[in-house]
């Protein structure tokens, strides 16, 4: 139990992209800001800042969430956080990343990290989704460029590759 | 943004003690409404009481007569629960109509109830299923019926030193029970309701034995349609009965024009949602 008039920084032992680290930050700071500014993981974007657009999506313990609506104080020791940087890097793209390139699932790019994270969260649970299930899983991620068809194409192709069909 | 007090509860007794000791600080559960209100400047609390890590508040349990859901159970966890899907299918459907995956994984039923928005999607469900809400303080616990809980626009019967800890639904499954949740929004996901309705009915030989109808976004808080319920109770479901029920619910409330919809549209879709449900009864429930 903590108290007092001003929130003091709190320390959490967490895993970020499989790296076990200790993070010290004010409890009222958003997870989004902790990732971007304390941990310098700039892949996670801020869009609306109010849970509508999904640009800030990250995965906590297997569940996709909006990191703009999670306060650092709500994070527990042992939590496992996955950001877009944890999917792959420029030399070793994850299938979902390569498919977004190949199928032109990205245009301006601001929504792409969140799209990749939501797609990854879906494919971890359901490796064989139909297009409607992809659309439902991605319904919390807005894209103003693509019209979504190519995003769904990208996820469907990544699912085939992950199932070993392509 | 200035620093604020951050009171983190790890256990249920701590959560109760911290809420009692800090009645001017909102309780932080999933945060999907509260953090938006705080960041936008709509509220400027001196601090929070964070109950999001209290494991006892996340459980969903069932016995022979009740399903009890912890206030911090997420919409996703509730929608995935087998007992909820069997006994409270309209609750599962409502939980899946809230936001999208990100919000369903984070937002909680207790938060939705305590936010007490007239557009809160689980509110018509707790009203129609006849849920009871457990309020705990350092002085003890009490149960309040959902129908007595929502007292006005964003107002509830909870005292400032109390914490909503559990929601208890009667287990109602039988072959004669029908329940449904409808939501009218601008799109399927991420939409705040223009109108929502939950209906729970016991139907026998083509007649309505018992019915509860609750509606969201048509009044300062979610409300039961007692007038229309009375009109339907004991009646065989026929086309004239459906028409009169539709007319009744269209006139039972006085919704407003606002940024999301109009009074006329809200009245109209209330009639449509109820008529859709009642028509479905005649199809599924051929008199034996």
- Oligomer class: heterodimer
Report the C-alpha radius of gyration of chain B, rounded.
Answer: 19 Å
Low-confidence stretches of chain B: none
Shape descriptor of chain B: globular
Overall number of strands of chain A: 5
Let me know the average pLDDT of chain B: 94
Could you explain how this protein is built, in words?
The complex is a heterodimer of chains A (166) and B (288). With 166 residues, chain A is of the alpha+beta class. Chain A has five helices and five strands, in the order ββαβββαααα. Chain A has helices spanning 31-38, 95-102, 112-125, 131-137, 149-162; strands at residues 10-16, 19-25, 57-60, 63-66, 80-82. In chain A, β1 (10-16) and β2 (19-25) form a beta hairpin. Chain A starts with 9 loop residues before the first strand and ends with a helix. Chain B has 288 residues and is an alpha+beta fold. Chain B has two domains: 59-170, Uridine Diphospho-n-acetylenolpyruvylglucosamine Reductase, domain 3, CATH 3.30.465; 177-282, CO dehydrogenase flavoprotein, C-terminal domain (Enolase-like, domain 1). Chain B contains twelve helices and 14 strands. Chain B has helices at 12-21, 34-39, 75-80, 82-87, 89-96, 101-104, 109-115, 123-128, 146-149, 226-232, 239-252, 263-284; strands at 5-8, 27-28, 47-50, 60-62, 66-70, 132-137, 140-145, 150-152, 155-156, 163-170, 177-184, 195-204, 207-216, 223-224. In chain B, the strands form four sheets. Chain B has a five-stranded antiparallel sheet. In chain B, strands 11-12-13-14 form a four-stranded antiparallel sheet. In chain B, β8 (150-152) and β9 (155-156) form a beta hairpin. In chain B, α10 runs antiparallel to α11 and α11 (239-252) runs antiparallel to α12. The longest helix of chain B has 22 residues, at 263-284. Chain B is globular and about 60 Å long. The mean pLDDT of chain B is 94. The A-B interface holds A 1-7, 10, 26-28, 30, 49-52, 54, 57, 63-66, 68-71, 73-74, 76, 118, 121, 136-137, 139-141 and B 1, 3-10, 14, 17-18, 28, 30-32, 35-36, 39-40, 46-48, 50, 52-53, 76, 99-103, 105-106, 188-190.
């Amino acid at each position: 139990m903590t108290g007092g008039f001003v929130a003091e920084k709190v320390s959490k032992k967490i895993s970020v992209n499989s790296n076990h680290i200790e993070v010290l930050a004010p409890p009222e700071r958003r997870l989004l800001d902790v990732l971007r500014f304390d941990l310098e993981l700039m892949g996670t974007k801020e869009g609306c800042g109010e849970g509508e657009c999904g640009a800030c999506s990250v995965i906590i313990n297997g569940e996709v969430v909006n990191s703009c609506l999670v306060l650092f104080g709500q994070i527990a020791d042992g939590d496992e956080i996955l950001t877009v940087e944890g999917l792959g890097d420029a030399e070793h793209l994850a299938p979902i990343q390569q498919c977004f390139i190949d199928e032109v699932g990205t245009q301006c790019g601001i929504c792409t990290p969140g799209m990749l994270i939501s797609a990854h969260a879906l494919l971890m649970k359901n490796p064989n989704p139909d297009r409607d299930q992809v659309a439902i899983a991605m319904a919390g991620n807005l894209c103003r460029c693509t019209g979504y068809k190519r995003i769904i194409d990208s996820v469907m192709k990544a699912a085939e590759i992950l199932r070993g069909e392509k | 943004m200035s620093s604020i007090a951050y009171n983190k509860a790890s256990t249920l007794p701590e959560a109760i003690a911290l809420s009692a000791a800090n009645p001017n600080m909102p309780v932080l559960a999933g945060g999907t409404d509260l953090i938006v209100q705080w960041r936008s400047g709509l509220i400027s609390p001196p601090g929070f009481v964070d109950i999001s890590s209290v494991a006892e508040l996340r459980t969903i349990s069932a016995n022979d007569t009740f399903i009890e859901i912890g206030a911090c159970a997420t919409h996703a966890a509730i929608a995935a629960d087998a007992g909820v899907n069997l006994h409270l299918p309209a609750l599962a459907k409502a939980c899946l109509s809230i936001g999208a995956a990100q919000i369903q994984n984070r937002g909680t039923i207790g938060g939705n109830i305590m936010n007490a928005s007239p557009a809160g999607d689980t509110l018509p469900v707790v009203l129609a299923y006849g849920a009871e809400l457990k309020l705990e303080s350092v002085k003890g616990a009490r149960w309040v019926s959902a129908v007595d809980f929502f007292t006005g626009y964003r107002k509830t019967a909870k005292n400032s030193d109390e914490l909503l800890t559990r929601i208890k639904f009667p287990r109602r499954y039988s072959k004669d029970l029908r329940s449904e949740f409808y939501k009218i929004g601008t799109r399927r996901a991420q939409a705040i309701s223009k109108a929502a309705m939950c209906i729970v009915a016991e139907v026998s030989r083509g007649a309505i034995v018992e019915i509860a109808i609750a509606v969201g976004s048509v009044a300062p808080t979610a409300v039961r349609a007692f007038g229309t319920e009375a009109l339907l109770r004991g009646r065989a479901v026929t086309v004239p009965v459906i028409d009169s029920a539709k007319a009744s619910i269209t006139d039972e409330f006085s919704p407003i024009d606002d940024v999301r919809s109009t009074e006329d549209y809200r009245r109209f879709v209330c009639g449509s949602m109820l008529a859709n449900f009642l028509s479905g009864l005649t199809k599924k429930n051929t008199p034996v």
